[in-house]
Design brief:
By secondary structure, this protein is an alpha+beta fold. The chain has 2 domains: about 55 residues, no CATH class; about 140 residues, no CATH class. The chain has 3 helices and 11 strands. Strands 1-2-3-4-11-10-7-8 form an 8-stranded antiparallel β-sheet. Helix 1 runs antiparallel to helix 2. The N terminus and C terminus are likely disordered. It binds zinc ion.
């Protein structure tokens, strides 16, 4: 499990919490105990707290467990800026870990990091709206928007809301003006028992005809 051995890199309180709930969760699985929905829910919350306390380009974290890498044929346009992306599939040397796909844009950095069989992307508009495209988990999910400001090292968080039917809302507007660009914007989603998805970008502001980043009003 990625958490084990690396939780110490997060904030100590968050790391201790997620390590404890991960141990309980693993014991439930190993001992074949009855599915404890409250424990799974707590583990999901703790995992989201821990993941969002890390550098949100989380492939830097799991990258040290990579066993093999395969370049994927798709060269889809970046959902944020439209440039052509590169996608790779990663098999991890962790028992039970599903293969992951990471899609990297030459401008935005890591824009998708998720289990190989998932399809989800994010677009961003200058007025602070973020939009999901594809197939998010229908239930048993939690997600949080994180902004990492490079110059102040300040991190901002907002929980992603649910639609009335329980799945993640298709769009969400961060309830404050975007901070000054550039910043890394991420949506981290934990779903099922312990899978996670990272949609993100190095956000430089709206594209202008000259290709210059434009400062936000913040
Ligand atoms: Zn891009």
């Amino acid at each position: 499990m990625i958490l084990r051995g690396h939780a110490s890199e997060g904030r100590p309180d968050v790391a201790a919490r997620v390590t404890a709930s991960a141990a309980e969760y693993e014991a439930m699985l190993v001992e074949g105990r009855r599915h404890d929905a409250a424990l799974v829910d707590r583990f999901r919350h703790d995992m989201l707290d821990w993941l969002t306390s890390q550098d949100t380009m989380l492939s830097k974290n799991w990258g040290r467990f990579v066993d093999s890498i395969e370049a994927l044929p798709e060269k889809t346009p970046c959902s944020v800026c439209g440039r052509r992306t590169v996608a790779r599939a990663f098999v991890l040397r962790i028992a039970g870990a599903v293969p992951r796909r990471e899609t990297v844009c030459p401008s935005c950095g890591s824009v998708q990091d998720m289990p190989l069989d998932h399809t989800l992307s994010m677009s961003v508009t200058p007025d602070g709206w973020m939009h999901l495209h594809g197939s998010p988990p229908r239930s048993e999910w939690l997600a949080r928007v994180t902004i990492e400001r490079f110059f102040t090292r300040e991190t901002l968080h907002w929980d992603w809301p649910a639609a009335a039917t329980g799945e993640p809302a298709q769009s969400f507007q961060v309830p404050e003006p975007w901070p000054h660009v550039p910043f890394r914007l991420s949506l981290i989603m934990v779903h099922g028992d312990c899978e996670f998805i990272v949609l993100g970008c190095l956000y430089r502001g709206p594209l202008s005809p000259e290709g210059d980043a434009v400062d936000s009003i913040a």
